[in-house]
Specification:
alpha/beta, FAD/NAD(P)-binding domain, Elongation Factor Tu (Ef-tu), domain 3, 2 domains, six-stranded antiparallel sheet, five-stranded parallel sheet, binds flavin-adenine dinucleotide
């Protein structure tokens, strides 16, 4: 019998991790603090409770979450199996009956002979025992402190204040321009993309922000006196006065618009967000405006009329590590080889992405215990790209990331047609995952491939 392992947190990542370890023969203790102690967002004692939406995202094969779901099915994910069994009609999305989903995961884990579910808050990281920490965005305060002692306070964050991210290809460079303030930096034309505004455009934008509807804070966020401290949302800045933004994140100093030869009245700066240069974030634009309206307002910015948003701005409580400084792409903690992190605490966002990192952490812990080389999916796959992004992004600029096509390596040939481009990304991801799994020395994965229709695909 294999060595005993510990998983802390019975959410999406922790449940997937516990199951994958147990299936590989490890006696697994899964600690979950509910119902004794809740998070403020969970409402039941069930494992794998979905805290908000009941949708696991688009299931269309050429969309980011659809690609990720397909990869998780290839890997033999328990939670994907339970989600499909509990699915409800939702057009192109995979939505579930949340009760049925959580109950089936809870029951399956309770019945597994290698899993012991322990309803107890863990307040310390276990000394030398092989462990996966998957305590989620609402990790209990005692555990948060224990993690901070391990990682250092500077590497643990408590809130998201996320600026929107746009697809670089959708920025209208006939109106925007590349430049650094005062021409600083190298002479490549500028690291920032700048969207200039005249006074009328600026005031129209400010009015829209002042009247925008925001997402309500939850009780556990409202009660926290530190919430939003140090990162005021743009709509709140706009409400402080018409000119507040023009003297703050939208100040135009040091910039001349090459299209007019003049300094604009105000400016929105966009900074490169990934190495490939396909994603740009709006600097200092953290916001809590409802997503539909947020898109409409941001498209008032000259140059962003047709912007495609990869991620909308948002602000909420979220405990997460500075993963690029602390974790390998296998989810292993750099400073302690038998400690792994999984789920939202690694900076991955979204139900399926979080579940997926639980799988990766468990697979690698199991491989390590069996003396096998650790494994990370190829970067051409959505899961590989996500793991790579959260562990390789520049640590200073790190913000959580969800599955999206922008984090995949660029295609070798340029495809103009958007639908064809999506399909090309999806097909490349599928082939890369199948090829990598076919070669992987893991009996559970091989059995899953053997039993599924994927086998046929591999053979043809
Ligand atoms: C309010 C909110 C709403 C969200 N809505 C969505 C959404 O609609 N769609 C989406 O895709 N993503 C959403 N997310 C983001 C994320 O996908 C989910 O939070 C997801 O559940 C994270 O998975 P996880 O396994 O990392 O954490 P969780 O699913 O939260 O699991 C962590 C588990 O650890 C337990 N735990 C915490 N501390 C301890 C401890 N010390 N000892 C033992 N157990 C402990 C918790 O009780 C919990 O059960 C939301 C996040 C939040 C905070």
């Amino acid at each position: 019998m294999n060595q005993r392992v510990t998983v802390i947190g019975g959410g999406l990542a922790g449940c997937e991790a516990a199951w994958q370890l147990a299936e590989r023969g490890h006696r697994t203790r899964l600690y979950e603090m509910r119902p004794q102690r809740s998070t403020g967002a969970h409402v039941s004692d069930r494992l794998a409770e979905l805290v908000c939406s009941n949708s696991l995202g688009s299931k269309l094969p050429d969309r980011a979450t659809g690609i990720l779901q397909a990869e998780m099915k290839m890997l033999g994910s328990l939670l994907m199996r339970c989600a499909e069994a509990a699915s409800v009609p939702a057009g192109g999305a995979l939505a579930v009956d949340r009760l049925q989903f959580a109950e089936s995961v809870t029951e399956t884990l309770n019945l597994h002979p290698n899993i012991e579910v322990i309803r107890e808050e863990v307040t310390e990281l276990p000394g030398d025992a092989p462990t996966i920490v998957a305590t989620g965005p609402l990790t209990s305060p005692a555990m948060t402190q224990a993690i901070a002692r391990y990682t250092g306070e500077d590497y643990l964050y408590f809130y998201d204040a996320i600026s929107p991210i746009v697809d670089a290809g959708s920025i209208n460079m006939a109106r925007a321009f590349s430049a650094n303030r005062y021409g600083r930096g190298d002479d490549t034309g500028g690291d920032y993309i700048n969207c200039p505004m005249d006074k009328d455009q600026y005031l129209r934008f400010v009015r829209a922000l002042q009247s925008a509807e925001t997402i309500e804070l939850r009780d556990f966020e409202r009660e926290d006196p530190n919430f939003f401290e140090g990162c005021v949302p743009i709509e709140q800045l706009a409400k402080r006065g018409d000119d507040t933004l023009a003297f703050g994140p939208m100040r135009p100093v040091g910039l001349t618009d090459p299209h007019t030869g003049r300094r604009p009245y105000a400016i929105v700066q966009l900074r490169q967000d990934n190495l490939a240069g396909t994603l740009y974030n709006l600097v200092g634009f953290q916001t809590n405006i409802r997503w539909k309206q947020q898109k409409e307002i941001l498209r008032l910015i000259p140059g962003l009329e047709n912007a495609e948003f990869i991620r909308m701005g948002q602000m909420h409580r979220n405990t997460f590590l500075n993963a690029p400084a602390l974790l390998h792409a296998t989810m292993q903690f750099r400073q302690k080889s038998n400690l792994y992190f999984a789920g939202q605490i690694t900076g991955v966002e979204g139900y399926v992405g979080n579940t997926a990192t639980g799988y990766i952490a468990a697979l690698n812990l199991s491989r390590q215990l069996n003396g096998l080389r650790e494994w990370a999916p190829p970067q051409e796959t959505m899961l590989g790209a996500l793991c790579h992004y959260v562990t390789n992004c520049p640590p200073k600029a790190f913000q959580p990331m969800k599955a999206n096509l922008g984090i995949l390596p660029s295609l070798t040939v340029k495809i103009k047609n958007k639908a064809q481009r999506r399909r090309a990304y999806a097909e490349r991801a599928r082939s890369a995952m199948l090829a990598a799994l076919t070669d992987l020395d893991d009996q559970v994965i091989q059995a899953n491939l053997e039993n599924s229709e994927l086998k046929q695909h591999v053979e043809t």
